[in-house]
Each structure stands twice: as C-alpha cells, then as structure tokens.
Design a protein that fits this description.
By secondary structure, this protein is mainly beta. The chain has 1 helix and 5 strands.
Length: 125
C-alpha cells in the first residue's frame, strides 16, 4: 500500500475545553492565538455566562453585556440590572456586535480582561 492511499483527512486539532452547553460547537477555523481556549494554552475555569456583544472595536476583545434580575426586599419587587464584561475574542470565533455569545472565566489576560469567548450561540443582525 502506498502512503497516499492510507492517508486520512484530519479535522483541525481542537482541544476539549470541558464545557458542555447546548449549541456550543468547536470553531471550524483554526488560529494561532495563544489566548484561544480551543487552539491555545488558556484554560476555562470558574463561571460560564451568556451575553450579547455590545462593542467589538478593540483588537481581539469584545464587550459583552448581560442582564439579570435581583429581588429587592424593601419593595417586594424585582429590578433589572446589567453588567458589562470585557472578553477576549479569538480570531477563529470572531464574534461581532449583536451576537449572543457564551463566555468563560480564565486567568487574567489583560488589566480588564478575565473572560474569553467560547462560541457564538446566535448571530446578530
């Protein structure tokens, strides 16, 4: 048998990041980013959140906003709050403004960045 006949097409090498979430798939593109959880050396630990990308103007960084409700005991009502989180955006994922993304906590990657985008759950318009 020749070497070319036994050669099998291989998918791009992606790591198992250990996150099971409905709709989360490894990216089809590959990248050389060392801060990418799928192709680099960054590990995901801590909390995993879902949010909407509000800004994508920085290089490889996005601002993700998430809304949540808090019970106010004095008024016996819920109030809506929101927080903005800076997250690293690997080139293989390339989330844009309006996308619903899944982000995971990592070690500090920059002064204000301690999360990384794991995948796009829904593309925005």
């Amino acid at each position: 048998m020749s070497a070319s006949s036994t050669q099998v097409e291989q998918k791009p090498k992606t790591r198992n990041i250990g996150i099971v979430y409905p709709g989360l798939q490894p990216p089809e593109k590959t990248c050389n980013d060392k801060k990418c959880p799928w192709h680099g050396i960054v590990r995901v630990r801590g909390i995993v959140l879902v949010g909407k990308v509000i800004k994508a103007r920085m290089q490889n960084t996005v601002v993700v906003e998430r809304e949540y409700v808090v019970w106010v005991k004095k008024y016996k009502r819920y109030e809506r709050r929101r927080s903005r989180i800076h997250a690293h955006n690997p080139p293989c994922i390339a989330a844009k403004e309006g996308d619903i993304v899944l982000i995971g906590e990592t070690r500090p990657l920059a002064k204000s960045v301690a999360f990384v985008v794991l995948g796009v759950l829904k593309r925005g318009g």
